[in-house]
C-alpha cells in the first residue's frame, strides 16, 4: 500500500511539472530578472538627474553615434522615459523592487505563494503614490509621471482637490488596514508600550546595561509589531497572534484591568492528590498537629533556677601572670636555642593559650619535645602543647590560669548562641579557650562517649548535657533513659519521670540501677528502633525529622500506627561496670543501636571512669565518633578515648577535650551543681505530667541455659578461687582450673559455666579458650561485690 502511494506521487508531480520551469531555468530566469531590476533601478535613479539632457535622444535611438547621459545609456534613457515620464513617476521605482523579488523567488525556487499578492499591493502602491504625487505634476512632472498627472486631473474634474485628497486618504486607510492590519487598539497598545518603555528608561537610565532581561523583552517586543506591519507575508498570522498574547502576559498589571488578574491560577494550584487534599483540609480545620498540646501549659524552666557560680562579669585578666608566663616560655625556649618571632595570648576560663610563631628554621618536633621542660619552668600542671595549631600555622602552649574561672551553666544557657541555636538537640557544653560558648547538636554527633578519671567532672558533664536539653526541649519532644549503677548520680531526675523519662512496661523505677535490667532495656530499645524504621518505611521518609514534619502536617494517619516520635536519649553512667558484668549481652545491642539508631532519633551517651580497651571496645569506639575526655590518669587512657594524648595533661574540674572526628577542642565544662539540678527537676516535676512515663516496647528475655546457675547461692565453693585463677592467667579454660585447684573435670566444667553466667568469661568457643572479660583482680573484686549487693 505504501509502495503504491509512493509510486503514484511522482506521477502527479510530473504532471504538474510540465507547466513548470526546470531548476536550471529558474536560476537563469531568476538571475536575469534580478539583474534587469538592478539595471532598471539604476536607470530610474540616473534618469531623475539626466532626463533633460537625454530627452532629445529618445527619437534617435538607432543612431549609434549619439550617447545618452543615463547610466544605462539609451536603453536606460528610453525605459526610464517610458516608466518615469510617461508612466508613474517616482512610483515606478517600485517596479524594479517587484521584479527583483520575483527574480529572487525564482532563483531560490521559493514557494510563490505570496508573490501575486506582492504584485497586487505593489500596483496599488504605484497608483496611489503616482496620483498623490500627481498633485505636483505641474512644477515637477517627474514626481507623478504622466499617468499620475492625468488621473489626478481626471479625478479633480469630478471631485475637486478636496475630493481627490479624501479619496487618497481613504486609499491610505485601506492600505494600512488591509496590508498592515492596523487597528485602533493595536495603535493604542503600541503607543502605551512605547510610553512605558520610555518611562522606565527615564526611571533607571544608568541601569540600562545591567537589566539585559528587560532590554531583551523590550527590544523583542518592538520589532514584533513592526515586523507584523511591514512583512505580513514573512510572518504567518499565527505568529502575530502569539506575539500579541505574549505582550499581554508579560505586562498583565499594566495592560489588563484588575478583573482579569483576579481570575488567576489559584485553581490549578489546588489540583493535588486526594491524600494531600485530606491532609491539607485537616491542617486547615485543626491546624498543624502540635505534639506539645497535651501538656500545652508546660513552662520551660527559668534561668533563675540556675546559680551564678564564681565571679560575675567573666574572666579577670591577671596582667602580671600573663607577663610572667610569657617570659618563662620565651626564656625556656631560648635556653634550647629556639627563637620566637611572635607571641600572642588568648585567655580562657581555665587556661590561657600562648600562640607562638617560632623563628624560621625551627623544627616543630623540637618544641613538642620540650613539653616537660616548659612545664617544669612554669611550675604548672596541665601544660599542653599543640604543635602546630590546626589551620593556623602557629604553635600553641596552653598554660593553666592560677585562678580558674568557673563557667556556670547559667551563663551558657543564657548565651545567645544557645538560645538561638537552630539545632534538634542542642547541648551547651561550656566555653572554649577563647571564652566562646560551645554549643553542639547531639543529633549530629550522633552518639557521645565520655571518659575521665574519678572526680574530674564526668557527672557534672552529664548533668550539663541533660540540663541543656531540659532548657530547650518540651517533654513531648525528648525522652531519656537513664542508667545509673552508682544509684546516686541521676536519682534527681526521678522527679521528671512522667515528663521526660522512658521505661519498660511494668517496671517501677524509670531510672535503671540494676545491670540486668539494662540488658532488657537495651533490647527493648532495639525493638523500638526496628518499629521506628518500619514507621519511617511506611511514611516513605528517611529520618525522624522528616517523619515528624510529615506527621505534624497530618499526612500520616494515626490509625495506621503513626505517632509523633520523640527523640530518645540513653544515658549510661559507669559503662565499665556494666560491660564488666554483662559483657557481650550489653555490647551487642549497644553496637547495634550505635550503628543504626541515628536516623530514627535514638542517641546514646556513655560515660566511663575507666577508658581501657576492654571497656571501650573497638566496635563501640568505631560507632562513637564524638568523644569527650576529662582528665585521665595515663597517656594510654587518653589514646583509648581520643586516639591522641592530651587528656592526661588536663587539670581536672571540668577541663575537657572534645572531638567529633579530627579536631580536638579544649573546653571548660559548664558547672551545674546538684541543688540546681534539683531545683530544675522540681520545677518541671511540679507541673502537670503525662499519666505514665514514655513506654518502651516489651522485651521477653531468652532464658539462657546457664541462667539457672546465676543464683549466687548455688555456686561452687571454689567459685571465687577459680575466678581469680582465670582472671590472673587471663585464660578461660576448664583444664587450668583443674590443674591449679586440683579439681575433677566435671566440677571444673560446671565452674566455668558459672563464670560465664557471672560475666567473667565469654561463651564457649570450640577448641579455643574462652575469652576472659574481667581485666584484673580489682575489677573482679568489684564485680563480685556488686553482685552480693544486688543479690541482697
Ligand atoms: N565544670 C566544672 N567546673 C568546676 N568544678 C567542677 C566541674 N566539674 C566538676 N567539678 C568539680 O569536681 C568535682 C567532681 O566532679 P564529678 O562529680 O562530676 O566527678 P566525676 O568524674 O563524676 O567523679 P566520679 O566518677 O567519681 O563520679 C565536683 O564536685 C566539682 O567540685
Written account of the structure:
This is DNA translocase FtsK 4TM domain-containing protein. It comes from Meishania litoralis. By secondary structure, this protein is of the alpha/beta class. It folds into 5 domains: 23-179, no CATH class; 184-261; 319-400, Threonyl-tRNA Synthetase, Chain A, domain 2 (2-Layer Sandwich); 409-690, 3-Layer(aba) Sandwich (Rossmann fold); 705-791, Winged helix-like DNA-binding domain superfamily/Winged helix DNA-binding domain (Arc Repressor Mutant, subunit A, Orthogonal Bundle), CATH 1.10.10. Helix content is 51%, strand content 10%. It is built from 31 helices and 15 strands. The strands form 3 sheets. A 9-stranded mixed β-sheet has the order 6-5-14-13-12-7-11-10-8. Strand 1 (340-347) and strand 2 form a beta hairpin. Helix 2 crosses helix 3, helix 4 (94-107) runs antiparallel to helix 5 (115-134) and helix 8 (212-230) packs antiparallel against helix 9 (237-250). The longest helix is centred in the first third of the chain and has 40 residues, at 141-180. The radius of gyration is 49 Å and the shape is elongated. Bound molecules: adenosine-5'-triphosphate (ATP). The site of adenosine-5'-triphosphate has 14 residues, from helix 19.
List keywords for this structure.
792 residues, alpha/beta, Threonyl-tRNA Synthetase, Chain A, domain 2, four-stranded antiparallel β-sheet, elongated, binds adenosine-5'-triphosphate
Mean pLDDT metric: 79
β-strand number:
15
CATH level-four homologous superfamily name of the largest domain: P-loop containing nucleotide triphosphate hydrolases
User: What's the total helix number?
Assistant: 31
Gross geometry: elongated
- Cofactors and ligands present? adenosine-5'-triphosphate
Low-confidence stretches: 1-18, 205-261, 703-709
- Helix fraction? 40-55%
Amino acid at each position: 500500500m505504501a509502495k503504491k502511494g509512493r509510486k503514484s506521487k511522482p506521477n502527479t508531480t510530473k504532471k504538474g511539472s510540465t507547466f513548470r520551469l526546470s531548476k536550471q531555468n529558474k536560476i537563469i530566469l531568476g538571475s536575469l530578472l534580478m539583474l534587469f531590476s538592478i539595471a532598471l533601478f539604476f536607470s530610474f535613479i540616473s534618469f531623475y538627474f539626466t532626463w533633460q539632457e537625454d530627452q532629445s535622444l529618445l527619437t534617435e535611438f538607432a543612431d549609434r553615434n549619439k550617447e545618452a547621459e543615463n547610466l544605462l545609456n539609451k536603453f536606460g534613457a528610453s525605459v526610464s522615459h517610458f516608466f518615469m515620464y510617461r508612466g508613474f513617476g517616482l512610483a515606478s521605482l517600485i517596479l524594479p523592487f517587484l521584479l527583483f523579488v520575483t527574480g529572487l523567488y525564482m532563483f531560490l525556487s521559493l514557494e510563490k505563494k505570496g508573490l501575486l499578492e506582492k504584485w497586487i499591493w505593489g500596483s496599488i502602491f504605484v497608483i496611489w503614490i503616482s496620483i498623490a504625487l500627481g498633485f505636483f505634476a505641474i512644477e515637477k512632472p517627474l514626481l507623478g509621471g504622466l499617468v499620475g498627472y492625468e488621473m489626478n486631473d481626471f479625478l479633480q474634474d469630478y471631485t475637486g482637490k478636496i475630493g481627490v485628497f479624501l479619496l487618497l486618504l481613504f486609499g491610505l486607510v485601506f492600505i494600512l488596514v488591509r496590508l498592515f492590519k492596523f487597528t485602533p487598539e493595536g495603535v493604542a497598545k503600541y503607543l502605551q508600550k512605547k510610553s512605558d518603555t520610555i518611562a522606565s528608561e527615564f526611571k533607571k537610565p544608568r541601569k540600562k546595561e545591567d537589566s539585559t532581561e528587560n532590554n531583551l523583552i523590550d527590544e523583542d517586543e518592538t520589532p514584533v509589531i513592526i515586523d507584523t506591519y511591514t512583512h505580513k507575508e514573512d510572518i504567518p498570522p499565527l505568529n502575530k497572534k502569539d506575539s500579541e498574547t505574549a505582550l499581554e502576559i508579560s505586562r498583565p498589571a499594566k495592560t489588563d484591568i484588575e478583573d482579569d488578574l483576579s481570575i488567576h491560577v489559584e485553581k490549578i494550584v489546588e489540583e493535588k492528590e486526594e491524600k494531600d487534599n485530606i491532609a491539607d483540609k485537616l491542617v486547615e480545620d485543626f491546624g498543624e498537629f502540635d505534639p506539645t498540646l497535651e501538656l500545652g501549659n508546660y513552662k520551660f524552666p527559668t534561668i533563675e533556677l540556675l546559680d551564678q557560680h564564681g565571679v560575675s562579669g567573666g574572666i579577670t585578666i591577671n596582667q602580671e601572670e600573663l607577663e610572667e608566663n610569657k617570659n618563662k616560655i620565651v626564656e625556656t625556649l631560648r635556653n634550647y636555642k629556639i627563637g620566637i618571632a611572635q607571641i600572642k595570648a588568648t585567655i580562657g576560663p581555665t587556661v590561657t593559650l600562648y600562640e607562638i610563631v617560632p623563628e624560621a628554621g625551627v623544627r616543630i618536633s623540637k618544641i613538642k619535645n620540650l613539653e616537660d621542660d616548659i612545664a617544669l619552668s612554669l611550675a604548672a600542671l596541665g601544660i599542653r602543647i599543640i604543635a602546630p595549631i590546626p589551620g593556623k600555622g602557629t604553635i600553641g602552649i596552653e598554660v593553666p590560669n592560677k585562678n580558674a574561672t568557673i563557667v556556670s551553666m547559667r551563663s551558657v544557657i543564657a548565651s545567645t548562641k544557645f538560645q538561638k541555636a537552630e539545632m534538634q538537640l542542642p547541648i551547651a557544653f561550656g566555653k572554649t579557650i577563647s571564652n566562646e560558648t560551645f554549643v553542639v547538636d547531639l543529633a549530629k554527633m550522633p552518639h557521645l562517649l565520655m571518659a575521665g578519671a574519678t572526680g574530674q567532672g564526668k557527672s557534672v558533664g552529664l548533668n550539663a548535657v541533660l540540663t541543656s536539653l531540659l532548657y530547650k526541649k518540651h517533654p513531648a519532644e525528648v525522652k531519656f533513659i537513664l542508667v545509673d549503677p552508682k544509684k546516686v548520680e541521676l536519682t534527681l531526675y526521678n522527679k521528671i519521670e512522667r515528663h521526660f523519662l522512658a521505661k519498660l512496661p511494668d517496671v517501677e523505677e524509670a531510672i535503671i540501677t540494676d545491670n540486668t535490667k539494662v540488658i532488657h532495656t537495651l533490647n527493648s530499645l532495639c525493638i523500638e528502633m526496628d518499629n521506628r524504621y518500619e514507621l519511617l518505611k511506611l511514611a516513605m521518609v528517611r529520618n525522624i525529622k522528616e517523619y515528624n514534619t510529615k506527621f505534624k502536617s497530618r499526612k500520616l494517619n494515626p490509625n495506621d500506627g503513626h505517632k509523633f516520635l520523640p527523640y530518645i536519649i540513653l544515658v549510661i553512667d559507669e559503662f565499665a561496670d556494666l560491660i564488666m558484668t554483662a559483657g557481650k549481652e550489653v555490647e551487642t545491642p549497644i553496637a547495634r543501636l550505635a550503628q543504626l539508631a541515628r536516623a530514627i532519633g535514638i542517641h546514646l551517651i556513655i560515660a566511663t571512669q575507666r577508658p581501657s580497651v576492654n571497656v571501650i571496645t573497638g566496635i563501640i569506639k568505631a560507632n562513637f565518633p564524638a568523644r569527650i575526655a576529662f582528665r585521665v590518669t595515663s597517656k594510654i587512657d587518653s589514646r583509648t578515648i581520643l586516639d591522641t594524648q592530651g587528656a592526661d595533661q588536663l587539670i581536672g574540674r571540668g577541663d575537657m577535650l572534645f572531638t567529633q572526628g579530627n579536631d580536638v577542642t579544649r573546653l571548660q565544662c559548664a558547672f551545674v551543681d546538684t541543688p540546681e539540678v534539683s531545683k530544675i527537676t522540681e520545677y518541671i516535676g511540679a507541673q502537670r505530667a503525662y499519666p505514665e512515663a514514655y513506654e518502651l516496647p516489651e522485651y521477653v528475655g531468652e532464658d539462657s541455659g546457664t541462667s539457672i546457675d546465676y543464683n549466687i547461692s548455688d555456686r561452687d565453693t571454689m567459685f571465687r578461687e577459680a575466678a581469680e585463677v582465670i582472671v590472673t592467667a587471663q585464660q578461660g579454660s576448664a583444664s587450668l582450673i583443674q590443674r591449679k585447684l586440683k579439681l575433677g573435670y566435671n566440677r571444673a566444667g560446671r565452674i566455668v559455666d558459672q563464670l560465664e553466667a557471672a560475666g567473667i568469661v565469654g561463651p564457649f568457643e570450640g577448641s579455643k579458650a574462652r575469652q576472659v572479660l574481667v581485666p584484673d583482680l580489682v575489677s573482679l573484686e568489684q564485680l563480685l561485690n556488686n553482685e552480693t549487693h544486688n543479690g541482697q
